[in-house]
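Mods, move this if it's the wrong board.
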Amino acid sequence: MNQYIKSVFFCGVLACLGMNTIAAQTTQPSKTISTQPTSKPTTQAMKKSELMPNKPYHSIGEYPSTFTTATAIQRTIDGLGYRYHWASEGLLEADLNYSPGNDGITTFETLKHIHNLSVTIMTTVKGQDNLRPSPEYDMDYEGLRNATLENIKAASDFLAQNPNTNFDERELTFVRGEKRSAFPFWNLLNGPILDAVYHTGQIVSFRRTSGNPVHPKMNVFSGKAPY
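Not the wrong board. Structure tokens:
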């Protein structure tokens, strides 16, 4: 399976990464959506990343020295981390409250969803269960962003340290009360990992519409830091 998973996996990745540039659902004017106290965006506008080079995925880093199923998945997760770092960098309150309309969720609510996906990615890679319903996290924008980056990095680090992980035996599991549901590891690839890439693309589109595009020198091909 480990040889077969590489070829099928990369075909899925190449097809789905093209969705990163998904356009906003409509061009309706942005609206401010009130959020609950536990999910309120910070009112202090973040500065650009001059003070943030030590956060995970300022650059994508060196590629793995060996090519295995684990390191191939690791590099894909690193690609997500780099994209997310720059998609979520320097968002202002107007960006966080932006919604495309038609009952679409705000940028901040999209960040919350990506965080939940990052938890699923990290726990599954490590062979742990995912609790349902998902825990509620009381974090502002900066806390949410940091936690998401750390989760993605933790998943990558685990794969780097365990390059010979047998994914035939690794499952994506959900526990809801006394019920435990298990799915093949394949579902993590076409599910949470690529879903997180997709929604990161939405953040890129949303912030462009709200007037605060990503850093123009961010390069997903090289994975190098813009500065």
